[in-house]
């Protein structure tokens, strides 16, 4: 079966750096996405990786290793507003998105 | 403001009743999707449409139907609601490429009692 694994919850301190990991086993691979979802709100798109390596967007970076079925989202200079769930999703061979259950990130002052 | 509008925002529905969740986008995206989100689970695809006039079944289509008469609208119908359909429902859309990801509506919180 297809599977996306991410930690259920993480805690970090304001101003610090946190890395959220995602491992996947899917039938085929056509890209990996990271989304941010604040409680009670819709997911919003953060990043897209289709080739191996690091993609940087301001305070957020996303890394992909297709051979290892692994990605991480790196958040730098954490702010209280970064408290949210972070969703990892992989587009499979049928071009359908398979979603992880999300990682709830708690930022403490 | 460009985006996706979903209605209603929330609804309490008696079991056995029929209900249509509405979704409208103004971005001229070809592809549209309906997901449900339940605590502890990832988003699960109910139905999708790659272009106006076509629809397809996702991971959890049973008990739901959709139509795509035009590019902008993609309603989701529950023919006879059951308590297991209690969930948050998100409509989403995407353009041809993946670089911008999916755009999501604000969701409909549905409770079937």
Describe the 3D structure:
- The complex is a heterodimer of chains A (109) and B (113).
- With 109 residues, chain A is mainly beta.
- Chain A has strands at 3-5, 9-13, 18-25, 32-37, 44-49, 53-57, 60-65, 70-75, 84-91, 97-99, 103-108.
- The termini of chain A are far apart.
- In chain B, strands 2, 4, 5, 6, 9, 10 and 11 form a 7-stranded mixed β-sheet that branches. A 4-stranded antiparallel β-sheet of chain B has the order 1-3-8-7, with no helix packed on it.
- In chain B, a hairpin with an 8-residue loop joins strand 9 and strand 10.
- The radius of gyration of chain B is 13 Å and the shape is globular.
- Classes of the chains: A mainly beta (109), B mainly beta (113).
- Chains A and B meet through strand 5, strand 9 and strand 10 of A and strand 5 and strand 10 of B.
The gist of it:
The complex is a heterodimer of chains A (109) and B (113). By secondary structure, chain A is mainly beta.
Strands, helices and their partners?
The complex is a heterodimer of chains A (109) and B (113).
Chain A: E1 3-5, E2 9-13, E3 18-25, E4 32-37, E5 44-49, E6 53-57, E7 60-65, E8 70-75, E9 84-91, E10 97-99, E11 103-108
Parallel strand pairs in A: 2-11
Antiparallel strand pairs in A: 1-3, 3-8, 4-5, 4-9, 6-7, 7-8, 9-10, 9-11
Chain B: E1 4-7, E2 10-13, E3 19-25, E4 31-37, E5 44-49, E6 56-57, E7 64-66, E8 76-78, E9 87-94, E10 103-104, E11 108-112
Parallel strand pairs in B: 2-11
Antiparallel strand pairs in B: 1-3, 3-8, 4-5, 4-9, 5-6, 7-8, 9-10, 9-11
Unreliably modeled segments of chain A:
none
Largest interface: A-B, 23 and 19 residues
Please state roughly what percent of the residues of chain B sit in beta strands, choosing from under 5%, 5-15%, 15-25%, 25-35%, 35-45% or over 45%.
over 45%
The span between the termini of chain A is: 40 Å
Report the helical percentage of chain A.
Answer: under 10%
Beta fraction of chain A: over 45%
């Amino acid at each position: 079966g297809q599977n996306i694994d991410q930690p259920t919850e993480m805690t970090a301190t304001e101003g610090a750096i946190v890395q959220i990991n995602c491992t996947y086993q899917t039938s085929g691979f056509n890209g990996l996405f990271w989304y941010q979802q604040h409680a009670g709100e819709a997911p919003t798109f953060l990043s897209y990786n289709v080739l191996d390596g690091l993609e940087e967007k301001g305070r957020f970076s996303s890394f992909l290793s297709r051979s290892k079925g692994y990605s991480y989202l790196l958040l730098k200079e954490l702010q209280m507003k970064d408290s949210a769930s972070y969703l990892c999703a992989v587009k499979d061979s049928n071009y359908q998105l398979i979603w992880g259950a999300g990682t709830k990130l708690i930022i403490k002052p | 403001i460009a985006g996706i509008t979903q209605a209603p925002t929330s609804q309490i529905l008696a079991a056995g009743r029929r209900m249509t969740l509405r979704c409208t986008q103004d971005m001229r995206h070809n592809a549209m999707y309906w997901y449900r989100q339940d605590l502890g689970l990832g988003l699960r695809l109910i139905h999708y449409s790659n272009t106006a006039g076509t629809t397809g079944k996702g991971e959890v289509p049973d008990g739901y139907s959709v139509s795509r008469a035009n590019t902008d609208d993609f309603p989701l119908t529950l023919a006879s609601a059951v308590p297991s359909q209690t969930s948050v429902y998100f409509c989403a859309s995407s353009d041809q490429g993946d670089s911008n990801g999916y755009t999501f509506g604000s969701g409909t919180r549905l409770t079937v009692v």
